[in-house]
C-alpha cells in the first residue's frame, strides 16, 4: 500500500501542480471562460489513464503463464525507464516548468479552445499514463489487490489536496526537497521493479539461474511477518532472491542514486556587456 501511495502522491502532485499553474494563469489573465476547456482536457486525460491501466490488467489476464510472465517483465522494464526519466526530468526542469506551461497556454489561447483542450490533455495524460504503467508494474505479485488500489487512491487524493492548497496559497511546501526525497524513494521502488522484471524473465525461461540463489534470509525475514510484507511490497526485497535479481537490483540502484544525488551544475550567468 505504501509503494502505491508514494506513486499516487508523487505523480498526482506533478499533475496537480501543472493544473494549478494553468488555472492560475487563466484566472489572473482574465480568461476564466477557458477554464471549462482546461478541465475538459484534464478529464479526458484521467479517463485515458484509467482505460490504459484497465487494458494492461485485461491483457495480462488473457495470456497463458509464459506470455503473462513476459508481458509483466516487459511492462516492468518500461515502467523503470519511464520513472527514471521522469525523476531526472523533474529534477532538471522543475524551476522553469511554470514559465514553460504559461508560454504554451498563451500560444494555445491564440489558436482557440480546441488547442487549450489538447494542451491540457497532453500535459496531464503524460503523468496519468506513467502512473498507470508504474502502478501496474509495482503491484505484480501482490497477494491482495485492494491494498494497492487503496494506497494509490489515497496518494492521489493527498496530491489533489496539496495542489489545491498551493493554488489557494494556504499550503507552503518545499517542492525541491519534496521531489528529492520522493525521487530517492521512487528509485528504490524502481530498483525493486527492475529486480522483479528479471525474475519474470527467469520464470518465462528467457533468462537462466532461477534456482541459483544469492542468499537465503528466510529465518530473519519470514514471509508471514509484517516487516517482510512491507519490504516486499515497497522495494521488492525477498528473502531468497536469485543471483541475477540481486545483480540487477544493485546495477540499477547504485549508479542511479549516485547520478540523482550528485549536485547539479549551475550554468554561470553571463556578465553584462560594458557600455
Automatic annotation (TrEMBL):
<feature type="transmembrane region" description="Helical">
    <location>
        <begin position="38"/>
        <end position="58"/>
    </location>
</feature>
<keyword id="KW-0812">Transmembrane</keyword>
<dbReference type="Pfam" id="PF03239">
    <property type="entry name" value="FTR1"/>
</dbReference>
<keyword id="KW-1133">Transmembrane helix</keyword>
<comment type="similarity">
    <text>Belongs to the oxidase-dependent Fe transporter (OFeT) (TC 9.A.10.1) family.</text>
</comment>
<feature type="transmembrane region" description="Helical">
    <location>
        <begin position="149"/>
        <end position="167"/>
    </location>
</feature>
<feature type="transmembrane region" description="Helical">
    <location>
        <begin position="70"/>
        <end position="90"/>
    </location>
</feature>
<keyword id="KW-0472">Membrane</keyword>
<protein>
    <submittedName>
        <fullName>Iron uptake transporter permease EfeU</fullName>
    </submittedName>
</protein>
<feature type="transmembrane region" description="Helical">
    <location>
        <begin position="6"/>
        <end position="26"/>
    </location>
</feature>
<feature type="transmembrane region" description="Helical">
    <location>
        <begin position="111"/>
        <end position="129"/>
    </location>
</feature>
<feature type="transmembrane region" description="Helical">
    <location>
        <begin position="242"/>
        <end position="261"/>
    </location>
</feature>
<feature type="transmembrane region" description="Helical">
    <location>
        <begin position="179"/>
        <end position="198"/>
    </location>
</feature>
<dbReference type="InterPro" id="IPR004923">
    <property type="entry name" value="FTR1/Fip1/EfeU"/>
</dbReference>
